[in-house]
């Protein structure tokens, strides 16, 4: 029982730090909450969580070891993930430029532009092609997991990872979808959208170059 408790505490501590580290996943949930509404941001949180669980399963099954064994395969994943983040960032900048000085959508109009299912898919794909998440999983499993973990311990650890991810992104969804946060966003919508697009672009470049 002590092994379960020790492993669970280590996984919870390390993954909490990894989860709260600013990155594409956090940025996507925050931007969704600010630009749209809480329901859509919750969809983003669900998509990120599903991707983290899948990354955890891949880590437990040895798929990530294969990526480590064949550097070209991991390099291909980094190229794919970085290119996708570049696409998200440049698309964001382009759409902001295109909008220019036009009046931003009000909250009611923007709520009709997306569906929760769309945000779940977007967040899932953004997270699953992001090799940074995979590197966090590899680090976690190498530091916190026993040498030959049993399936119950593995399931426990993946569940902890998913729960922490969901709770953190739900917190972001609730905080940044408040009326005061969205009002502040509306006052500086173009600046924040440029900043968001720029950060996605930088994350993409960093992943490709790493």
TrEMBL record:
Q: Which UniProt keywords apply?
A: Cell membrane, Membrane, Transmembrane, Transmembrane helix
Asked if the Swiss-Prot or TrEMBL record annotates the protein with the keyword Cell membrane, the reply is: yes
Q: Keyword Transmembrane helix, does the record have it?
A: yes
Q: Which GO terms describe its cellular component?
A: plasma membrane
Membrane spanning residue stretches? 12-28, 40-66, 72-90, 119-141, 153-179
Compartmental location = Cell membrane
Its membrane topology, per UniProt? Multi-pass membrane protein
- What GO MF terms are annotated? amino acid transmembrane transporter activity
Matching entries from Pfam families are given as: LysE
**PANTHER family linked:** ARGININE EXPORTER PROTEIN ARGO, ARGININE EXPORTER PROTEIN ARGO-RELATED
Report what the protein is called: Lysine transporter LysE
């Amino acid at each position: 029982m002590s092994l379960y408790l020790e492993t669970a505490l280590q996984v919870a501590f390390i993954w909490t730090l990894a989860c709260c580290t600013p990155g594409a996943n956090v940025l996507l949930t925050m931007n969704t909450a600010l630009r749209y509404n809480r329901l859509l941001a919750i969809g983003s949180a669900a998509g990120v969580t599903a991707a983290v669980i899948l990354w955890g399963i891949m880590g437990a099954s040895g798929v990530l070891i294969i990526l480590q064994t064949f550097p070209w395969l991991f390099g291909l994943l980094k190229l794919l993930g970085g290119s996708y983040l570049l696409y998200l960032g440049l698309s964001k900048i382009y759409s902001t430029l295109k909008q220019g000085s036009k009046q931003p959508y009000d909250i009611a109009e923007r709520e009709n532009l997306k569906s929760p299912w769309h945000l779940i898919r977007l967040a899932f794909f953004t997270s699953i092609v992001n090799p940074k998440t995979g590197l966090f999983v590899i680090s976690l499993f190498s530091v916190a997991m026993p040498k030959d973990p049993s399936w119950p311990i593995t399931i426990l650890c993946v569940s902890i990872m998913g729960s922490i991810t969901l709770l953190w992104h739900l917190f972001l969804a609730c905080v940044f979808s408040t009326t005061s946060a969205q009002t502040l966003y509306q006052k500086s919508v173009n600046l924040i959208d440029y900043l968001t697009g720029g950060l996605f672009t930088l994350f993409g470049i960093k992943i490709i170059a790493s």
